[in-house]
Amino acid sequence: MISYEFLTTQKIEKALNYLDKFGKVHILAGGTDLLVNLYKESPRLPEFDYLLDISNISELKFLTLVDNFIEIGPLVTHSRLINEPLIKNNFPVLTKAACSIGSTQIRNRGTIGGNIVNASPAADLLPPLIALRAEVELTSGKGKRVLSLEEFLAGPYKTKIQANELLTKIKIPLLGDNYYTDFQKIGRRKALSIARLNLALVTKIDEEGVFHDTRVAPGSATPYPQSLPETEKAIKGKSVYNIDLEEIGKVTSKEMVSITGERWSTPYKKPTIAVLIRRALKKIIEEVKTNE
Amino acid sequence: MNKITVTFIVNGTEVTLKVGPKERLLDTLREQLKLTGTKEGCSVGECGACTVILDGKAVSSCLILTGQIGGSEVLTIEGLETDGTLDPLQQAFIDYQAVQCGFCTPGMLMSAKALLIHNPHPSREEIKTALEGNLCRCTGYEQIIKAIESVVKK
Question: For residues B132 and B150, is the Cβ–Cβ distance under 8 A?
């Protein structure tokens, strides 16, 4: 049976003190994953003696534009991400992904920081955040360090966060002009579904209709969300007027299997990931053509 | 295991309780406060039967530890009627026969109430989104949506 002492605080400094002072602390934010695992006594839960509730630390609930970055506090909920004009206007791919998470009840509690640190292979915010080149700031009693999100993720349900560190900021660089984004997801049903596959696409398309700086990140496709450099290379330099979507789909399928090897789900996921990249590209190409 | 002292507001009344470290808001409501209108269905945030309104937002009370909500305000199904008069949503559920076995009803009503607090004139799509975390296995959703629409039109 799982047994622990409950700690709660409204201050970052106090939370860091707890992390320094006590061993085996598990952090609780929105709780939409953790409480499920606690209820099920999931073997995925690491052993812990203390549960540290950070959900009331108001210093971690900011969302602001600072220079050329949007900075997001880890306790910002999915609902807030959806309703923030700053996000909708700059990163619609993030809004679309947040809309696809769970249900209203889940989105009202679940947080962006929780989605990142939980590091589920099926997390819906990780592909768009990777494609947006997000960075995470980790704070401990000794100081701060910043990692790119892609570098921070270390495996399925694993990150490089240390036991004495707290995720304190998510930083996303603004995209500039002529960028287009899309998020695609397939689940077993429309609401409350865990992604069977999802995919974020962020790209620049210049005045001539040529793809530049293309970034593609799928979820539930690889052991943990990561960019697909081969797919990105295949798209870059192509034009919205003659890109061969079938061909790109094949590259994406091949790249996914080259990372995962043949698994029980491969016969389903191999053609399906091709559909997702084609859908995302089609959506963006239509958008470019309507803007002409 | 340490007990935690928590003070919060339930249906307009302040309560101070000792709760266990694993005690969920759902457990506190049903077992300590005897507010058994809030139902336990799946216990993992998928069915919506335990939905309550926490600081103005619909949440699954099975996914919150009571230790987390000091200073917050909770509204449960018991707090919907005022001075013996049903909330318009409750009356509409009766009028539109949106209740069969009744197990999902408190959660449905709390999700609908939370929606109307922030958006008094939602579209049908917005109503469906607000209810996407609530499962009903008897009446289906049509009567429930119609009941909510009838309140919106008034």
Answer: no
What tokens appear for A227 in the block? 């960019």
Option in A39, A51, A108 nearest B21 (CB): A51
**Domain span including residue B145:** 88-153
Is there a single domain that holds both residue A67 and residue A137?
yes
Q: Does the distance separating the beta carbons of A108 and B59 come in below 8 Å?
A: yes
ipTM attached to this prediction: 0.96
Answer whether B21 sits within 8 Å of A28, measured CB to CB: no
Same domain, B119 and B63: no
Q: Is the pTM of this model over 0.90?
A: yes
Residue-wise pLDDT for A38-84, tens only, equals 999 998 899 999 999 999 999 999 999 999 999 999 999 999 999 99
Asked if residue B74 and residue B140 are part of one domain, the reply reads no
Give me the sign of the Cα torsion angle A7, A13, A16, A18.
negative
Query: CATH code at B75?
Result: 3.10.20.30
For chain B, positions 65-124, list CB contacts with chain A under 8 A.
65, 67-68, 70-71, 111, 114
3-state helix, strand, coil in chain A (%, to 5): 40, 25, 35
B68-83: per-residue pLDDT in tens? Answer: 999 999 999 999 999 9
What is the distance in angstroms between the Cα of A100 and the nearest Cα belonging to chain B? 11
Q: Indicate if A183 and A277 belong to the same structural domain.
A: yes
Number of residues assigned to chain B: 154
Q: Which residues from chain A sit within 8 angstroms of residue B132, using beta carbons?
A: 103-104, 190-192
